[in-house]
Amino acid sequence: MSGNTNKLDAPTGFDPVRRKFLSAVTAATGVALAPGVMLYGITRPSPATANVANEAVANAARWGMLIDVGRCADGCDACVSACVEENGLEGHGRPATDAQWIRKVEIRNPSTGRRQSLPVMCQHCAEPPCVDVCPTGASFKRADGIVLVDKHRCIGCRYCMMACPYKARSFIAEDLEDQKPHAPRGKGTVEGCTLCVHRVDAGRQPACVEACGDSGGGAMLFGDLQDPQSEISRRVASHATRQIRADLGLDPGVRYQNL
Predict the structure, then answer these.
(1) Do residues 187 and 172 lie in contact, with contact meaning Cβ atoms separated by under 8 Å?
(2) Are 167 and 43 in contact (CB under 8 A)?
(3) DSSP code for 25
(4) How do residues 149-192 score in pLDDT, each as one tens digit?
(5) What is the CATH number of domain 2-47+61-257?
(6) Where residue 99 falls among pLDDT bands split at 50, 70, 90?
(7) Distance between CA 181 and CA 49 in Å, rounded?
(8) Which helix (H) or strand (E) holds 62?
């Protein structure tokens, strides 16, 4: 199935072998970012255990999301609006610079012409390419599977944006005001969906999931993919689900039903 807008194909030249090579290079003592520009003493946190100070991490969990595309209405943007409100993403009216941590995408089956609308965000991969290519360790994966950006380490190189096959990250090019304390942002850094990590750590649902249940079609389900007794695990076990670009071997934490 292919999309006629917001294509989700991997960037031209994306190569898992090259991704592994870049990961190995960033562990070296010095890394050249440009002629005459070097980063020294780079140490990257292990993707399996990385987390920033004082973050609550459920080590036994792997948080994920199941989206039933059959319940996602074409004109509904409850999830997008909730994300904007929750994370303070009010923009400047310029699509080239405004952040959109979750977006609605229309896809079309070329053989049947069938069209579907679905939300796409950071897929919180088990093997995130954004983490592999980051030269400073700013992109990291928590032990519970949530992929984040440490703004104190991000140098704005945008390697992660180029590596992400889901086009799920954006660059902050302008000064920001009225930021949310739980969602710090900064000019010159990269950002993306956090699965509302501040809510998850407090035992709550991501804002998009909550809004979809309240005013949308109830298409989004959040939970622990590692817990066989959780509703999301039972649904994944009993229904056919798909991961976007599963062929890349990244094992996304976001799955789609009826796609």
Answers:
(1) yes
(2) no
(3) H
(4) 999 999 999 999 999 999 999 999 888 888 898 998 889 999 99
(5) 3.30.70.20
(6) confident
(7) 25
(8) none
Residue 152 per-residue DSSP state: T
Distance, CA of 11 to CA of 17 (rounded, Å): 14
Res 114: pLDDT: 86
Q: Which residue has the tokens 């088990």?
A: 126
Which range, of 64-73, 88-97, 125-134, 169-178, averages the lowest pLDDT?
88-97
How far apart CA 107 and CA 8 sit, in angstroms, is 9
Interatomic CA distance for residues 4 and 22, integer angstroms: 31
* DSSP-derived pairing of the beta strands 37-40 and 2-3: unpaired
- Residue 40 CB neighbour total at 10 angstroms: 8
Burial of residue 202 (number of CB atoms within 10 Å: 0-12, 13-18, 19+): exposed
Residue given tokens 């049947």 in the structure block = 112
Distance between CA atoms of residues 222 and 29, nearest Å:
40
- Please state the domain extents for the chain: 2-47+61-257
Q: Which residues contact 111 (CB under 8 A, 6 or more apart)?
A: none
How many beta carbons lie within 10 A of that of residue 92, not counting itself?
11
